[in-house]
Amino acid sequence: MSDSTVAKIKNNKVKGKIKNKIKNLTTTTPQATFADTLMQALATRVEGLMDASRPEGPAFLAATGGTEIAKALEFGPLEKLCKPLIVPAALTIALRDGSLSATDAALLSVTGAAYTTGDVILMLGGGHASRSKGRLVAGAAAFGVGHLAVGSLMLRSGLRFKPLQSAVHGVIAGGVGMMLLSEGKDNAPLAGYAGLLATLSALATSVDRSHGPAATLLAVAGPSFLVSDALILVRRKAEAGSLKARALDVGVIDTYALAALLMLTGTAAAARFAGSGT
């Protein structure tokens, strides 16, 4: 048997194992807790990223890692090469996990396009260190479009706001909004964006196993997005070029890449589960 034949057999076995694990996430046992289900979903998602038979996983890791290095070293050209690829790679992962209706796929694609547009707007304007409120507002507007699209898909998939999650996120949105407005009334658009993101996170964290085990990833996606944007606000006040500033930059990318991946794949999983009639 030739080396190429052996390699193909091995790749097919690995690919089969990943597909079976993703398929197994469509069912769960009554004894499993939400935390157990979420941890299994996260483990499967991470394992899938390293599946060489699906290049979008390694591409996502490479784009994220390259952006982290660029931020740590303040090397702009590498960031411009890698950062715009993070969300497209995550979107490809979400779409290739299984079939979606045309409407669901369109909403997911709009989300990916809007997030990528926001990335480019912010990246070309000085990145996380930018003091330009106009550019921040433009970037927030692009992300806002994405949040509305993915939130609409969550609602289509059966997610509904729960009282506790809504109350907690309402407090967060109110606190951030008051802080931003205390710095100036021209921060009103950013305060509005904070409210929109908190609303999306409240909906995402309202997920439960009735939306499908793989959709539990949304419980991590929403808070990760909130943390990422909070770090951006902190980063703007850090001294340019300092170790603190670079560490915050890397933290923003870490949490953002995680949020984008889990938001897209978790919402796609919820949509598939809702469409399965189970």
TrEMBL record:
InterPro entries hit by this protein: TMEM86B-like
Primary location recorded for the protein, binned into one broad class: membrane
Record's keyword annotation contains Magnesium: no
Cellular localisation: Membrane
Domain of life of the native organism: Bacteria
Pfam families: YhhN
Keywords, in A-Z order: Membrane, Transmembrane, Transmembrane helix
Transmembrane feature ranges: 105-124, 136-155, 188-207, 213-234, 255-275
Keyword Repeat: no
Topological relation to the membrane, as annotated: Multi-pass membrane protein
Annotated family: Belongs to the TMEM86 family.
Name listed for the protein in its UniProt record: Lysoplasmalogenase family protein
Organism expressing this protein natively: Dietzia aerolata
Source species taxonomy: Bacteria, Bacillati, Actinomycetota, Actinomycetes, Mycobacteriales
